[in-house]
Amino acid sequence: MSDLPSRADPAAAPDPSAKPRVPLAIEDWLTVVIMALLALITFANVLVRYFTDASFAWTEEVSVFLMIALAMVASSAAVARNRHIRIEFLADAGPPGRQRALAILGAVLVILLFALIAVLSSRLVWDDIQYEETSPGIGVPQWWYSIWLPILSVAIMLRALGVLLRGGRPAAESAELPTSPEFRDEERAP
Length: 190
Known about the structure:
The protein is mostly helical. It has seven helices and no strands. The protein has helices at residues 25-52, 58-80, 88-91, 96-130, 143-146, 148-165, 181-188.
């Protein structure tokens, strides 16, 4: 490590002692599994279509569900790591106190948004169960797909709550998987 000051603000850097209670590896592995399933389903559909001029009817329905689940799981990890979509010019500029306040505000807004999504999607799940809705492609109960939206919304809310409880700091990760830009820059330096 050099004696030069870090380019990144310490308020935005993960605190080594701020390990999340639930490991971020859960979201990482779910992302890998979902991506592998998507690739496998798509590859199987391409092979079947190439050799038989037909395709599996269920692949599009399952693929759409997996893409939505992938977006929600990745959002959960992004919130915990403070890598969610934001205007970095505003979020990363200014004194550390301002950056921390913006991170806390962002966490509160994420909690509110995904609480609303969880409540509304729970009503959707209840309607799917009550009216016995079936999926258009393969005819399975629609709630098999829709139940994951409120569950993953709550997971995102809990990750945002973790950021809020850590005072706006992202979750620290293990030394094997560095994510902070200043750590990667230091590793590249001779």
